[in-house]
Predict the 3D structure of the following.
Amino acid sequence: MSENIDILISAQNDSGLKSIAQKIKSGQRISDEDCLVLFEHGSLAFVGSLANLIREKLHGDKTYFNRNFHIEPTNVCVFSCKFCSYSRLYANKEEGWELSIDQMLDIVKSYDGKPITEVHIVGGVHPKMNLAYFIELIQKIHAHRPDLHVKGFTAVELDYMFRKAKLSTEEGMLQLKTAGLQSLPGGGAEIFHPEIREQIAGDKVTGDGWLQIHEAAHNLGMHSNATMLYGHIERYEHRIDHMHRLRDLQDKTKGFNTFIPLKFRNSNNDMSNVPESTITEDMRMYAIARIYLDNFPHLKAYWPMLGRQNAQLSLSFGVNDIDGTIDDSTKIYSMAGSEEQTPAMSTEQLVTLIRQVKRQPIERDTLYREIKDYSLIENENEIAFAN
C-alpha cells in the first residue's frame, strides 16, 4: 500500500496536492485550506487512495456491522425542514402516525430470543411526547430487556424535550442517562453553518446547540455519532466548516464513535428541484471525510440510503462500517427516495456483501467492541443459524 501511495504522489503534477498527500502519508493533520484543495482539485482516484491508506492503517480490512432495529415513535413534527420527506406537521397530524409506549414495547418484544444488541429510537418532534414520556419508555425497555443498548433521540428531539421541561441541557441529559439512555445517534446535524441551516432547517436547534448537547452527553461518559447532510445547496466551504466543528469537539471530548455523511435525497420534499449528488461526488465525500476527520475512529456508510452496491464501493473510499442489519420499520430515508425502500438485511446477507469486496466482516456492538469475526466462519449454514 505504501509503495502504491508513493507512486500516486510522484505522479502528481500539482505541487499543492503532492504536499497534502505527503502530510497524509506521514500522519499529519490537514488544514481547512488543504481540505478545500482536495474537494476542488483532487481526483477521485487520488482522494480515494489516500482515504483507503488511512482506513487500512486504522482497521486493516475489518468492516463492522451490528444487529439493530429501529423504533420511530412518530413522524408528527412541530418543525418543517425543507429537505425532510418524513415528517408531517402537527397541524396535519392525522396524516402521520403516533405510537404509544405499549406499541413500542411490543416492537421490542418482537425481538425476544433474537441476538439483537441495539435499539435505535428516533422520530419527529411531537409536542405530547415529552421528556417524562421517553424516560418511561426507556425504563420499560430496560426492565424488559436489560442487555439491549438503547441509542436514542437526535439533538433536535432532545433540545425540544429539555426546553419544554424547563431543564438545562446538562440536567436533561443526566435524567435520560439515569433512566437508561446509553448513547446518542448523530441525526439532526444537517449543516451547522447558519447561512445554510437557516434556509433548510431554520426553526430547529442551531449548529451550536447540537454540539452543546453532544458535548453534554460526552461529559457524562456517553458516546454519540455525528452526521452531515450533504449534496443540496451547501458549498464545499460549508462542509469543511461542519467537519471542523466536529473535529474540534472530538479533540476536546473524544466522545464520537463515528461520522456518517448522509446523502440528500430529493423525493417528496420542498427541495425536489435540487438535483442529487452523483455517485462520484458521494465517494469523494466519504474519502475526504476520512482524511479530514483524523480523530474519528470510524467512518460509516448508511447502506439503506446509498444502496447495497454503492455501500460496497464506499469500502474502498475510507469507510469501515456499513451500519446494521436493521429492520424494515425505518421510513426516514425510504420516504425520501433512498435506494432501499424496505431496508432489511440478514446477518448472512451483510456478511456476504462485505466478503464480496474482500473485506473482513466483524459484528460489533454499539461502542465498537467486537462480538464475532465472520471471516473465521466458512460454513454459510452457521452464519444463517446466527440470525
Observations:
- The mean pLDDT is 89.
- The chain has 16 helices and 13 strands.
- The chain has two domains: 2-59, 62-385.
